[in-house]
Amino acid sequence: MPEINHLLQTAIQAAKRGEREKAHQLLLQIVEQDEQNETAWLWLSGTVKTKEDRQICLENVLAINPNNKMAQKGLQKLGVTSSPPHPTKAEEKEVWAEPVYDVVLTETGDPHADRYQDAWSSPANLCAYCAQPVQRTDKRCPKCTRKMVGKEPVSPNRSRYLENWILFRGVSHFLYILIILGMFSLITWLVSIGAFRNREVAGARLFLWIILSLLPLFIGITVALYFRKVWAYWLVMVRFVIVFIITVLVAIFSPPIPANVPTAPWQFIVAWVIFIIYMISDLALTLLAGPDFRREKRWRVAAADDRIKDPLVLDKAGKLFAQRGMWATAVLYWQRAVGRSPGNVAVLRRLANGYARLGFPKRSLDTLQQAQQKTHDPKTRQLLAKQIELMRRKIEQLAES
């Protein structure tokens, strides 16, 4: 405890000095060691970057102390009505310091171990997609028939380099359209002043139409790059080689500029310099984003990275795996996120959704009820009540069938 108190004072002083990132890292260390530290969660709410994360931190404060006025005011500023229910004695004694369900229940002393005897309470390896128990000899999942061995990204999250590259390409596509339209206008103007005749620029116009028709292909490749498709990355690398060869050929074999063209030579030089800067920037971003497309052969069983401790990062990783259809892996990340952030109602709801999708309605119902107990927002409580009722009906239907 003295060490935690020292870290807390250091974090508070860093926050007061404006060293937000340092304070954020120190506060994360504190809540990892002491999940019931009310002061740490309160100060952490001032160092996170998004409204959703701030709400999570403040709800964690109220989960520890429902009478914390600063947390209540903070939620009101975020537009969340804070009306914490009066806890009963049984609720006051209850502390959710561990996940409701963990990967290896026998090691964590899960309170529901005797209640649910299913795939999550067994030591068997589970399919990353459908949570079906699988064996090392299985080439495909017996339930969802997906391949059990395949190449997966080394990093589950997109890097900033990839995000910046996608933004760069998006702006480039917009400028691409403007440049093509500008070239059409320039050709029309040159014809109008007699610098060229229509038949002399017919080839240039056809070339511009061909280039413009390729725009949907370029946009499609950018979308594929956002989803980290390896084939799209290699297409971009091939494009660099082709553009380099064409540039060299144009520089060597292009005819001299006619004397009657009303364009100064320096304008062509500026255009080439801009083009070269663009290509170098694009190539640099391409190489920096390369690790995002690195894949390695993995056995596709549900597993979570033990090195990730931040509940917000755990939640983000769970959402990314859910987007890829790996719901069993997503559930593992959300379990750990709930364990490190007991009052995180948003993650509890995602965890309940994961259980429901994977065919564990009783666990989903239990998690929804836990979320309902933790939330202080009346609208969220009403929504959870409807979801709980629907889940109860589903359980009843399964029992009858």
Physical arrangement of strands within the biggest beta sheet: 1-2
Helix content: 55-70%
Arithmetic mean of pLDDT: 81
Strand content: under 5%
What is the CA-atom radius of gyration, in angstroms? Answer: 29 Å
Total E-strand runs: 4
Number of domains: 3
Low-pLDDT regions: 83-114
Shape assignment: elongated
Largest beta sheet, briefly? 2 strands, antiparallel
Count of helical stretches: 17
Order of helices and strands: HHHHHHHEEEHHHHHEHHHHH
Distance from first to last alpha carbon: 54 Å
Blueprint of the fold:
Elements: H1 2-16, H2 20-33, H3 38-44, H4 51-64, H5 69-77, H6 89-93, H7 105-108, E1 125-126, E2 133-134, E3 149-153, H8 160-192, H9 198-213, H10 215-226, H11 230-253, H12 265-288, E4 295-299, H13 311-323, H14 327-340, H15 345-358, H16 361-374, H17 378-400
Antiparallel strand pairs: 1-2, 3-4
Helix pairs in contact: 1-2, 2-3, 3-4, 4-5, 8-9, 8-10, 8-12, 10-11, 13-14, 14-15, 15-16, 16-17
